[in-house]
Here is the input.
Amino acid sequence: MNTIKLRIACVQYNPRIGQIDSNISHVKRLLLSSNLTKPDIIILPELAVTGYNFKDKDHIQTSLDSLQNIQSGKSIKFGQELSKLYNCFTIIGYPEKFQGSTIYNSAVLISPIGTILHNYRKTFLYETDEKWGCSENPQRGFKSIDVVFDREFYTNPDPQKNYSKVRTNFGICMDLNPYKFEAPFNEFEFSLASYIQGAKLILCPMAWLSPLSPSITKVSKYELENENEADDSTVNYWILRFFPFLSHRNSILPKSFGKVNVVCCNRIGLEDDVLFGGSSSVIEFDSTKGLDEKINSENPSVNVLGSLGKNTEGVLIRDIEVELD
Ligand code: GLN
Here is the structure.
């Protein structure tokens, strides 16, 4: 199996709601101070520079971006700027305005020359998305796409050359959960769809809540102890949601897929009573490693290549090995 190495840079920080310009400057500063050289992919969180917990449809209006008129918005333009600056691919989450009044929670994949290669719309919504009038992705099924992660293909393609592709899938936060928290837990809709389609790289911009978020716990006061450490329960929950990729004794799925890399790029901070949980992680699943009954990071097929703290800002930089189609 042919593989390529990709350097992933995953940006975790606390975007302030509606303050797009200063959020953009903040991300630039974080990247500059991170010693990042030659990234292949920069990934940013869900609604990366706009903030997430908007009160209603009016509140989010000035933060929307439209693919038809990129110049009028700020998120996609910033993604293009980063791609060109670092000569890399960028994934940035943003609130999308579509045909007048429809709003989606989307993420774009941008090439090193700034072209939009793909726009993914969140399929499973969280209650916060509904507050600001977000619509579900009308296309169900979490469809993977094949991406050439070779700069040459975009800048100076050789017509004689057959450029290898990476089967890639995108999921935004709640997409990892059971639909509306109502579907059976073990349907694993997103990860099973990725598994069946043979995805090798799974990129997830997130605004995932801390288990201590006042919005979901009865506890009125929260304390972030050891805030420089990732929240193990969150990282292990993500691993569990990728059950089809675990070498697990009770799994009936064939383990012939080799390696899969998952990037969970989360944010931190508090917006009203919603506390985000950080813990951004790069996780490798290797089906050739062992069979076990563990459903967490201790399963031999799981290798957490790195995580950020539950309340730290920073850039997680990891080189991953990705199988080609
Ligand atoms: N269920 C997820 C969480 O608890 C969803 C959040 C989201 O979709 N932004 O964080």
In short: The domain at 3-134+148-323 is CATH 3.60.110.10 (Nitrilase/N-carbamoyl-D-aminoacid amidohydrolase).
